[in-house]
């Protein structure tokens, strides 16, 4: 099924009022992390390096299963933990762990494996563009235009809202006494719709846009499958514009 979805040539375009032009989709790099894990700060720093690459959407997703160790991660979200568990099953793992990096929903490795991560990014399936558009409509609204496509299985469209940088002083747990700096920290992960290839246009209100927030749109095979396309949606032009101590592991239930 993965080969047939890749052949859809899905892509994303940040659109203005002008006719659409091709734009390469970003390679999504997801770091599953926790402020309660002593192995994670170096992986956070590495993600910060990746976040500066124009061809990569690097996001930090905080899980909650290490909160019992003494420090409750303020960015942890059970929805993210469940996303990681779905990846584990899809990728053939019988456990979840931190720090873990997943590249385009296709491959995974430890966040300490810099060489492996860079290789996975370089070898990720190239994105091919089509007229899939994201347009700003007003201060805090996005309009998403999905063209007709030969989608054989369900595809999810996700909104990801994130903070470019966060620094937290940790006073309990494995990282006690440390100041942890995170990059592109996910604050909201929301499935907007399930798409089956029919042409569709819909809008979504993203309140954080009105205060300079950052967000992205992901198009992904359902149930944590390959990510087919991604774009930084906060940079969309308005439609009326003139222009390593240990790798923590936890068994799956």
Molecular structure report:
Mean pLDDT is 85; it is low at 1-23 and 241-247. Strand 7 and strand 8 form a beta hairpin. The protein has helices at 2-6, 40-51, 78-90, 114-123, and strands at 13-14, 27-33, 56-62, 95-98, 100-103, 107-110, 133-136, 141-146, 155-169, 179-195, 200-205, 214-221, 227-232, 248-251. The protein is built from four helices and 14 strands. It has one domain (2-240). Strands 1-7-8-11 form a four-stranded mixed β-sheet, with no helix packed on it. It is globular and about 50 Å long. The protein is an alpha+beta fold and 253 residues long.
Features:
4-stranded mixed beta sheet; globular; 253 residues; 37% strand; alpha+beta
What would you call the structural class? alpha+beta
Number of strands: 14
What is the CA-atom radius of gyration, in angstroms? 18 Å
Sheet with most strands: 4 strands, mixed
State the distance separating the first and last CA atoms. Answer: 27 Å
The portion of residues forming beta strands comes to: 35-45%
**Percentage of residues assigned to helices:** 10-25%
Mean pLDDT rating: 85
Order of helices and strands: HEEHEHEEEHEEEEEEEE
Q: What is the molecular shape?
A: globular
Overall domain count: 1
Strand order of the largest sheet: 1-7-8-11
């Amino acid at each position: 099924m993965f080969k047939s979805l890749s052949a859809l040539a899905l892509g994303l375009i940040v659109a203005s009022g002008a006719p659409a032009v091709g734009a390469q989709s970003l390679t999504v790099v997801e770091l599953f992390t926790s402020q309660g894990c002593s192995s994670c700060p170096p992986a956070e720093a590495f993600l910060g390096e990746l976040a500066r690459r124009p061809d990569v959407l690097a996001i930090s997703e905080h899980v909650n299963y290490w909160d019992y160790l003494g420090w409750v991660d303020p960015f942890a979200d059970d929805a993210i933990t469940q996303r990681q568990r779905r990846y584990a099953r899809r990728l053939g793992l019988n456990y979840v762990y931190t720090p873990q990096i997943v590249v385009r929903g296709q491959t995974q490795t430890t966040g300490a494996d810099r060489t492996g991560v860079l290789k996975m990014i370089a070898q990720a399936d190239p994105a091919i563009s089509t007229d899939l558009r994201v347009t700003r409509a007003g201060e805090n609204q996005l309009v998403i235009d999905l063209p007709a496509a030969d989608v054989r299985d369900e595809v999810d469209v996700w909104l990801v809202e994130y903070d470019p940088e966060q620094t937290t002083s940790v006073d309990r747990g494995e990282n006690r006494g440390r100041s942890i700096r995170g990059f592109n920290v996910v604050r909201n992960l929301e499935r907007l719709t399930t798409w089956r290839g029919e042409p569709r246009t819909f809008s979504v209100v993203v309140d954080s846009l009105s205060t300079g927030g950052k967000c992205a749109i992901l198009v992904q095979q359902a149930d944590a499958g390959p990510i087919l396309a991604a774009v930084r949606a906060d940079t969309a032009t308005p439609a009326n514009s003139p222009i390593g101590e240990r790798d923590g592991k936890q068994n799956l239930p």
